[in-house]
Amino acid sequence: MENLDKETLDKVDTDIDNLRIQFDQYFMGMRKTAPEMERSRLTYLFRRLANLQTSNYALKFKFHQLVAKFNSYSQYWERIQQKIETGQISRDRLKVVLATGPLEEEKKDAKPAAKAAESELISDAKIDQVYGQLVQSRKQLNQPAAVDKEKLAEALKKQMGQLKEKYKDKKMEFEIVVENGQTKIKARAKK
What we know:
The structure is a single chain. The protein has a two-stranded antiparallel sheet with strand order 1-2. The chain is built from seven helices and two strands; from the N terminus they run H-H-H-H-H-H-H-E-E. Helix 6 crosses helix 7 (149-167). It folds into two domains: 6-102; 110-189, no CATH class. The protein is mainly alpha-helical.
């Protein structure tokens, strides 16, 4: 049986890096099948090495680092394989991700634009008006008037965005109504 020594751990580290390269080749279409046999071999090797005793804490620490590295890569490979199988990501898009890194810039740029569009759909003055009417109506019905204005504004903007998608050209406005003794905010299309 192998001893837990520096050379063995260095070889295992190299094997993990080689396996990562093989999986990248598989994801890019350069390899027909996933390197599952190599991955299984490393899994069994880790199980054998975990049973070896050593009093060198530096070697134990390095071994645990390698286990964590291998587990992290394994989870990543599983996620990518699952996304490919379910059609959430295509091989062409995956090639771009592997070559250039995550496509986070597209997502980050899209979110502020969407939020800016939502905020343009309803003005702050209109939000203040709806808030004032809501608080006044709740006071008249002896309901708690405490309403978080920021949460209300966020909810109205989100709902206005959804309504604009649904009703395209129609102008929408919010009004306060009382139904069954409860104050509610309703959206309606302007004529």
